[in-house]
Design goal:
The chain is of the alpha+beta class. It has helices at residues 4-30, 275-280, 288-296, 300-312, 315-336, 346-354, 407-418; strands at 56-61, 67-74, 85-96, 102-113, 119-126, 132-142, 147-157, 169-173, 178-179, 184-186, 190-195, 203-208, 232-236, 239-241, 246-251, 260-265, 359-362, 366-371, 382-388, 398-400.
């Protein structure tokens, strides 16, 4: 029979045992980049529902020698102690992004105070030298909750580009003092921009009106035009209000060619709540005359409903189509917003039309998406390659490698949408 003292000791031993089991598991999960040529499927990062617990992240170069990593997890997934603190074990594996050589590893304990925010943010600074690009695998373990969060990210510190790109800028919401991990914030948000360790530098801010340009089909080999001439320019000490919807591009030195950016969106973003949003995203699957009719309808809501009802044949099926299509648009906004809304980008286009990819590989040059991966026939597999754009606004912009071989697949998938068929239903 266990006495109270023996029970306490036994419980403590079990807790310690489970703690170290979780830590060792996290180290194993963290080792996913591997040696040269070893690829790890990270498709879970783009799934509606995943067994993997999601991590939001932000990279901030504070010097040529050090980089801070901000990691946000859903507060309701953590277990806080009586003092309102959550303790996690964070494991990092740092690789050279070009040759996949393992450069460094670190395992540390991190604490964060409980707030009323949906996300709890942890921060850790790593000794990452300038002059190269890096891939970091991260595992966050909450021993008390028995949960492991995994994530991977890219760190760009190559040559002069590494000292100027958007990873040198940290953006805070002035009112909440919260680090913004996404590339967008609601209209009217007051921001504080920090370049490296200098929050009081003189910044040049350029404002660009929202882009109406949509991604072209994956077989149309035409170069996209990116914003070049700003609609207005002003200077500040890093604090300003995003009072107009569009992109705000900031640099810490006058005439600097590379900087950071934030997209100002309406308060409901990434959700689509206005009739205009619902209509605009239909452009990918409508004919010209169809789109014009919906756009010019007196009752646009009815016109949208009629479009989907015609595709579905019944109200219930129409509801399923609407939830799937606009759900994809919303998630594309969450995942792929850079200098414009995510659904308008090349990645957003493929995600909305084809759905969640079965396999996603990340490389130095970009990403590879594979569909129908469970089928052994190579003819049924659909591959899309996204090349990373070295652009002045963002390190996260990718352009699709277009190919005439994609034409049949595109027309078939759009045809299926128009017939009320969903080829690749999102995870539930």
């Amino acid at each position: 029979m266990l006495t109270a003292e023996k029970l306490k000791k036994t419980t403590m031993k079990k807790s310690a045992f489970y703690y170290w089991v979780l830590v060792f598991l996290s180290l194993g999960l963290c080792a996913c980049f591997g040696s040269k040529g070893n690829k790890k499927n990270i498709a879970y990062e783009y799934k509606k529902v995943s067994a993997k617990l999601k991590v939001w992240s932000k990279v901030h170069h504070i010097s040529d020698e050090e980089t801070s990593i901000y990691m946000g997890v859903s507060s309701n997934k953590l277990q806080f102690n009586a003092d309102g603190e959550a303790e996690i074990v964070a494991s990092f594996r740092v690789y050279n992004h070009k040759n996949a050589a393992l450069i460094d590893t670190a395992t540390v304990k991190l604490l964060a105070k409980k707030t009323n925010k949906a996300q709890t943010v942890f921060r850790h600074t790593l000794p990452i030298a300038a002059g190269a690009a890096y891939h970091i695998d991260i595992s966050l373990t909450d021993p008390k909750a028995g949960k492991i969060f995994t994530h991977s990210l890219k760190v760009w510190k190559e040559e002069d580009y590494g000292a100027q790109n958007d990873q040198n800028y940290l953006v805070k919401a002035v009112k909440s003092k919260q680090i913004l991990l996404e590339n967008y914030a609601p209209q009217g948000t007051a921001l504080q921009v920090i370049y490296r360790k200098n929050p009081k530098a003189d910044y040049t801010i350029q404002y660009f009106k929202p882009s109406t340009q949509l991604a072209l089909p994956p077989f149309v080999n035409k170069k996209r035009a990116f914003p070049n001439k700003p609609d207005s320019t002003f200077t500040c000490n890093g604090a300003f209000v995003m009072d107009k919807v569009g992109m705000y591009y900031f640099t810490h030195q006058k005439n600097q060619e590379i900087g950071g950016s934030m997209v100002c969106v309406d308060k409901d973003f990434p959700k689509l709540t206005s009739a205009n949003d619902l209509i605009e995203s239909l452009r990918y699957i409508t004919r010209n005359e169809e789109f014009k009719t919906i756009e010019e309808a007196e009752d646009t809501k009815k016109a949208i409903d009629d479009f989907w009802l015609k595709r579905a044949g019944s109200f219930d099926r129409g509801k399923v189509l609407i939830q799937e299509f606009y759900g994809r648009v919303q998630r594309a906004n969450q995942y792929f917003t850079t200098w414009q809304e995510g659904w308008k980008t090349d990645m957003g286009l493929i995600y909305v039309i084809y759905g969640e990819p079965d396999i996603v590989y990340k490389y130095y040059w970009g990403e590879e998406w594979i569909y129908s991966a469970d089928n052994s026939s190579s003819k049924s597999r659909q591959n899309f390659l996204f090349n990373r754009e070295k652009m002045r606004y963002s390190t996260q912009q990718h352009s699709l490698e277009r190919d005439s071989n994609n034409e049949d697949s595109w027309h078939l998938t759009v045809y299926e949408w128009r017939k009320g068929i969903i080829r690749n239903v999102s995870s539930k």
